[in-house]
Amino acid sequence: MASQAAIGFTRGAPSLDIIDTEGLVEATRLAFAEDPAGTTAYGTAVGYAPLRKWIAEQHGVPVEQVLVTNGSMQADAFLFEQLVSPGDAVIVEAPTYDRTLLNLRQRGAEVHPIALHEDGIDVDAVQALLESGVRPKLAHIIPNFQNPAGYTLSAPKRARLLALASQYGFTLFEDDPYFSIRFEGEQLPTMLSQDTSGSVVYASSFSKTVCPGIRVGYLVGPAEVIAGIAKIATTTYISPNMVSQSIVNQFCRSGRLDKSIDTVRAALRQRKDALVAALERELPKAEYTAPQGGYFMWVRLPGVSIDALADAAAEHGVAFVKGADFLLEGGDDSVRLAYSGLSAEEIDEGVTRLAAAVRSLDA
């Protein structure tokens, strides 16, 4: 079995067939043809000016509230460096993105994981933590199609988090790279768009809507916060990648971004449906909530040792990410399955192999 070509449910990235390479070639030509000086120069730490302006217009904020970075992980790191010192309390979802946990722990933060439900973080538990006297510097929230769970934060919970952030004076970090990738249901407004107290810093990325290799992300937040982060960015790299940002600017302004998002949405809906159908057929005892967008599904396999399953799955030519990787504790019966980079046929075969691996544990 190990000789089979492996099928990986591991990486949250789109496959090449749903990336608009033709549009990127044209955007690249336009970037160098229309602004060769700006595209090839160092630039400044706040990012490529035309793209910064476009992002500000999309969010309805002054351009001073926007900073464009080398991917959203860079944006996250800058924000944490600006706001979080060793010993500072930080609220995170449980489970949450593993790199977030790693970054915060490396900074010496006092991490407070709060259980994640199908409609988002347990806001009652957040409020109880605040009422107990904990004063976090920030709460990290992935509101749409959360990585790793695929869950979406409900409108009432968004409103409550905004109120708590205003009342207790912490930053609500809305980490939202999947916002545009909704293929079912009604789009919810961002917390940034509803913020009246300057509590929200918003991050997003073009990695999920243009292509991962473009490495362009951004932050939107209070002007004084963005100005502070700009100083960190200046000492870190003088300026981010102007070539990538100029290409993204042309891609967005040409209308190609909207077409790309439509393509990605259609493909991901099909892939999610294939995953659900295969799980229903092959692993009927599996527990999950099918996402309405994004790249990931959190799957619980009651009674299965995921550590043992990982070894068996490798023997059957399939890979996943262990649920425990996204938690400080727990998740020992859960996996994250990323369906974004696989065809429907590969997903079906991958789940068939995964089910065979599960059965082999009882053999």
Automatic annotation (TrEMBL):
The residue stretches assigned to a coiled coil in this entry are: none
Q: Which residues form the Aminotransferase class I/classII large domain?
A: 24-354
Q: Where is the signal peptide?
A: none
Give an example GO biological process: alpha-amino acid metabolic process
Name the source's superkingdom.
Bacteria
Q: InterPro entries, from UniProt?
A: Aminotransferase_I/II_large, Class-I_PLP-dep_aminotransf, PyrdxlP-dep_Trfase, PyrdxlP-dep_Trfase_major, PyrdxlP-dep_Trfase_small
Q: What molecular function does GO assign, one term?
A: transaminase activity
SUPFAM superfamilies xrefs: PLP-dependent transferases
Q: Which cofactor is recorded for it?
A: pyridoxal 5'-phosphate
Give the keywords, sorted: Aminotransferase, DNA-binding, Pyridoxal phosphate, Transferase
Q: What is this protein called?
A: DNA-binding transcriptional MocR family regulator
This chain's source organism reads Umezawaea tangerina
